[in-house]
Write a structure and sequence with these properties.
Elements (H helix, E strand, L loop, with lengths): L20 H8 L3 E5 L2 E4 L1 H20 L3 E2 L5 E3 H7 L1 H4 L5 E4 L5 E4 L4 H11 L8 E10 L14 E11 L2 H21 L4 E5 L10 E7 L5 E6 L5 E3 L20 E4 L6 H7 L8 E8 L2 E8 L6 H8 L4 E3 L2 H8 L15 E6 H4 L4 E4 L5 E6 L9 E3 L17 E16 L1 H5 L3 E3 L5 E3 L1 E8 H11 L1 E2 L2 E2 L10 E5 L5 H16 L4 E4 L5 H11 L3 E5 L7 E6 L5 E5 L3 H9 L1
Parallel strand pairs: 3-7, 15-17, 17-20, 27-28, 27-29
Antiparallel strand pairs: 1-2, 4-6, 5-6, 7-8, 8-24, 9-10, 10-21, 11-12, 11-21, 13-19, 14-15, 14-16, 18-19, 21-24, 22-23, 25-26, 29-30, 30-31
Helix pairs in contact: 1-12, 2-6, 2-12
This protein binds adenosine-5'-triphosphate (ATP) and magnesium ion.
């Protein structure tokens, strides 16, 4: 493509409202433009990258046996009412009415739509398992759309759904999808991890998120430095065992601690380490109150609390609720003398505390010489804290480290949540009606483009991996007014194209400096510059990623480019 005839509006300045590198560079290099908060146009270069990424996804999904279809974004409200999500999805669901005042939603995801489709068309076990997918636009009215394509309100997703007659069949497809996802992200050149995730309200057991490692990621991953173990931090079990010290037990004593509220304040005021302190947090777990105890240097993990009680909602009690239930401030909470109405649970580490410190449920006072079991009772000890860096890895191999990640994909065993709600049944071998078992598998395609840009960039611009680059070669004539240079560049623009290479040809009558700066910004893997030595048939080849340059005779140009692209 000739750049003079293309549409690649580059910007010199960093756009003021773009906070992260990928967002800034995709705007500056002319890949995307914002049309409303969280809503973007893919300009021609952006569209080319998107198509490359989609092609990789299609190849791997097809190879894994999934079949492509395309469902509508506009969905009747009845579907969502049937699953109950019309009421539970909240304001993220974009709702609208047609001219007859009928309610519709713009699909944030397509479980309802596909379940009804398969229900109506598949009646027998002979047609199962079945995996269908689409690459399609999604709508979510996100509270905080940000970071450009990373969190949009209109975005492109690949969503796949599988239907089965048995758990084993679901397990098999889940494994295939997991592998397909690994292939896709590997082919995009990404540094990623598949992490064990929380299955949330849906209640399925197995679920993995695919995370691209990046400092701007919103999720924290706990991974082992010695194995491929990785989990969302809220999910990682703690396997540390705690030794109880054999120091003699002291008497329980209430002491005055005016104004000392946080663990740090109390520990330093009483001259003890945070490990000696018991942190008490009052949670509302569905409709009961639970006092959760963890060691002062640990953080209580609400997902683990939720799982312990098999609850659907876990929230910290408000100051008003705390006052009402415990008759004190949040900062004074403690487990001694707690009434029947409150269940006390504790992390394993608390059991090993000897002569500890805790709040006295009275402003300005703490207990010292606190000993669990002697001074208070605990209904249950469990793993209730967040894993920390330095803890042993839950698989027993190595030590836990933390990293930040951008979630680009999600594989999920749904079970029968939607098939039950939408009555998706089939007849088994004995003619009996059975509920289909389902899995779902998503990739944020437009988010993936931004995640690649986030990982592949330097101070001069984007540095696309060859597999997803908008073009293979950026051909530049230094001086378009020089006949020799222009003719050689024109000639090789044709020849490279005939050789099957995708070439962006900067034939614009711009200064060389402008062309080079734009070229670095756009980030095509190979730059070929036709300049001073055009008359000798010699051009300069530059590798965007390494900065390596070489003078090459045009006779060897195609071979050189092919070699470098590999
Ligand atoms: P997040 O926690 O980031 O909001 P999610 O758990 O809501 O993601 P899913 O419902 O699992 O996401 O959707 C499948 C995939 O779609 C995600 O893995 C992610 O890559 C992508 N995705 C989700 N929300 C957005 C968004 N607002 N903009 C771009 N991509 C998104
Ligand atoms: Mg979300």
């Amino acid at each position: 493509m000739r750049q003079s005839q293309s549409f690649i509006p580059t910007l010199r300045e960093v756009p003021a409202d773009a906070e992260v590198k990928s967002h800034q560079l995709l705007l500056r290099a002319g890949f995307i433009r914002q049309s409303a908060s969280g809503v973007y146009t893919f300009l021609p270069l952006g569209q080319r990258v998107l198509q490359k990424v989609e092609a990789i996804i299609r190849e791997e999904m097809n190879r894994a046996g999934a079949i492509e279809l395309l469902m509508p974004a506009l969905q009747p409200a009845e579907l969502w009412q049937q699953s109950g999500r019309w009421y539970s999805y909240g304001p993220e669901l974009m709702r609208l009415k047609d001219r007859h005042e009928r309610d519709f939603a713009l699909g944030p995801t397509h479980e309802e739509m596909i379940t009804v489709l398969v229900r109506d068309e598949v009646k027998t076990y002979k047609r199962l398992p079945l995996t269908l997918y689409q690459i399609q636009v999604k709508f979510r009215d996100e509270k905080r759309p940000r970071f450009g394509l990373l969190r949009g309100r209109e975005f492109i997703m690949k969503d796949a759904y599988s239907f089965h007659t048995s758990q084993e069949s679901l397990d098999e497809t889940y494994k295939k999808m997991y592998e397909a996802y690994s292939n896709i992200f590997r082919r995009c050149g990404l540094n990623f991890r598949a992490v064990i995730a929380d299955s949330g309200a849906i209640g399925g057991k197995d679920t993995h998120e695919f995370m691209v490692l990046s400092d701007i990621g919103e999720d924290t991953i706990a991974y082992s430095d010695a194995s491929d173990y990785a989990a969302n931090i809220e999910m990682a079990p703690v396997i540390t065992t705690y030794e109880k010290s054999d120091e003699p037990l002291r008497d329980l004593e209430k002491v005055h601690t005016p104004g000392q509220k946080t663990i740090e304040q109390v520990a330093s005021y009483l001259q003890v380490t945070p490990e000696k302190c018991i942190k008490s947090l009052l949670f509302k777990v569905d409709d009961r109150y639970v006092l959760v105890l963890v060691r002062g240097d640990h953080e209580a993990n609400d997902v683990k609390v939720k799982n312990l009680f098999d609850a659907s909602i876990v929230e910290l009690a408000t100051p008003e609720e705390t006052k009402q239930v415990m008759n004190c401030e949040i900062g004074s909470l403690g487990p001694i003398g707690v009434g029947e109405a409150v269940t006390v649970v504790a992390d394993h580490a608390v059991k090993a505390i000897v002569n500890g410190v805790c709040g006295a449920n009275e402003e300005g006072y703490h207990y010292i010489g606190v000993n669990p079991e002697r001074d208070f009772t605990v209904a249950q000890y469990a793993d209730l804290r967040f894993i920390q860096e330095g803890d042993p890895s839950p698989d027993g191999k190595g030590t836990i480290r933390f990293a930040r990640g951008i979630e680009v994909g999600h594989v999920f065993k749904l079970g029968t949540k939607y098939s039950e709600a939408m009555n998706a049944v089939y007849l088994d071998e004995n003619g009996r009606s059975q509920t289909m078992i389902m899995g779902c598998y998503g990739i944020g395609v437009s988010r993936l483009v931004a995640a690649i840009a986030e990982q592949f960039a330097d101070e001069n611009g984007l540095v696309w991996p060859a597999a997803v680059a908008p073009f293979d070669v950026h051909l530049i004539s230094v001086n378009a007014k020089n006949d020799e240079q222009r003719q050689l560049a024109d000639e090789w623009y044709e020849k490279l194209g005939q050789a099957g290479l995708e070439v962006l040809y900067d034939d614009r009558p711009e200064r060389a400096g402008v062309k080079f700066a734009d070229s670095d910004l756009i980030g095509i893997p190979i730059r070929v510059t036709v300049g001073k030595r055009a008359s000798e048939g010699i051009v300069e080849v530059k590798v965007r990623q390494t900065g390596e340059t070489m003078e090459v005779s045009v006779n060897e140009l195609i071979d050189t480019i092919r070699r470098l692209l590999q």
